[in-house]
Write a sequence for this structure.
């Protein structure tokens, strides 16, 4: 199951069923099984506090993924700062819907096992994000 929540902000994901089906299709293509996936949309302040508390980073970020998966069975919580997504739209000159979906699938790709720590990993992650975005209907 894929669930969408908001914490401390007034945000509702447009077309949640369509987005959920897209996420499920990406997971299926990657030959993984979805158990439970919770998306929590929040503010910069909320995610910054989580970043400090759980990762000991004093920086803003657009996403934090908590992975509870076991082998090929995906389970996790993905926190997304809507403030950062809006800022990314300006920085990268992208529509909000596209940037939001990029961040949404970025978290899933981390759960699947894709990394983005090195330059090569980042390039691979971007390529995979683009491939996943092309699957949206």
């Amino acid at each position: 199951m894929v669930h969408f929540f908001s914490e401390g902000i007034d945000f509702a994901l447009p077309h949640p069923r369509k987005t959920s089906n897209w996420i499920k299709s990406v997971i299926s293509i990657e030959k993984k099984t979805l158990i439970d996936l919770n998306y929590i949309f929040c503010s910069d302040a909320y995610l910054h506090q989580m970043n400090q508390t759980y990762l000991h980073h004093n920086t803003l970020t657009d996403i934090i993924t908590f992975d509870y998966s076991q082998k090929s069975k995906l389970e996790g919580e993905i926190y997304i700062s809507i403030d950062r997504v809006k800022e990314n739209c300006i920085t990268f000159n992208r529509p909000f819907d596209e940037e939001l979906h990029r961040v949404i699938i970025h978290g899933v790709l981390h759960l699947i096992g894709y990394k983005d720590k090195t330059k090569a990993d980042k390039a691979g992650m971007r390529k995979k994000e683009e491939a996943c975005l092309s699957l949206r209907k």
Observations:
- The longest helix spans residues 96-112.
